[in-house]
Amino acid sequence: MKPRALFIYTHLSTFVEGDRKILEEHYNIESYRFKNSPKVLLLLSLLKELLFLLLTLHRYRLVYIWFADYHSWLPTLLGKLYRKEVVLIAGGYDIAREKKYRYGSFSKRIRALLTLRSLERASQVWAVSNYLLRGIRAIAPKANSYLLYNGIEERLFLLKREIEKSSEADSSNQATAGLSKRERVVLSVALANSRQSIYIKGIDRYFAVATTLPNIKFILIGSNRELLKSVLGAIPPNIEVIEPIAHSKLALYYQNSHIYCQLSRRESFSLSLAEAMWHNAIPVVSAVGGMPEVVGKMGEIVYLNDHPLLYGTGILKVAQAIESSIERERESGCQKRIAQNFTLSLRKKRVGQLLNLK
Fold it and tell me: Do 116 and 239 reside in the same domain of the chain?
């Protein structure tokens, strides 16, 4: 009989769901979603979590928590008291402190303290990039921290025929409209639903680059058009903005876009970058976080600076990188790099090593 594991999360994103599937092979999983919004209900959420843990924690051999934040403080505290194995996955926001954009757990004093204590008390802390691992070891040197790269699910992205059939059957869907095969397009995927996330994801930079290159088509997936207009003003005419779509539909865009561009100000890994590279899209990214680890020598990494005297120079460098890359044929080396370093099967193997699973 499989041992029980408690799986705690705030939002069931693609990578969070991927980890739950990995653990289900070895544990009977009980999931617990901590509702961290709206903020006015945060105290109530903490009280409900406390009651749940006091009543059930004794059942579990493993407690698995995605992200260090308010919701990880009680499980790591009680897990240590109950002598449970508690694994905490750090995703990037956990150790961030961007004062200008009020971004990151360390941008607020109480939140920073709860996050730090969570990192220190967990049995193991797993970081999704070396960049993030270095940050954890600097902020929480007492934490028992390890590297565990994010990974793409190869199966979903190898079934090209099925994806193409799906797109033909639903040609009216916005996920397939306006994109011809092998079009020399620049693509970016950024789930931005607030002013803060628009700037953290560097969408203002993406707009500036598109304005510099009016004859090249740009596509932005995952952001609300009206919100973008209210924050950044007019959308450049050569940018097609597509609001969030099903993850499976993204594969068609990855296949048919020539360049993948991510100009974030903060990015611990970027799963969408890895997915695009799996389809041999040439990456052009800002030199932040874990993105250089993903790209390696396969694309263009540009150093950007928001200082008024340097901002324009950085945008011009990105534009030049796109212009030179758009004329090149896509290289199979991008897919090879992802296959060798950043797949779900590799992550699964690493999880087994860290948890001593057979």
Answer: no
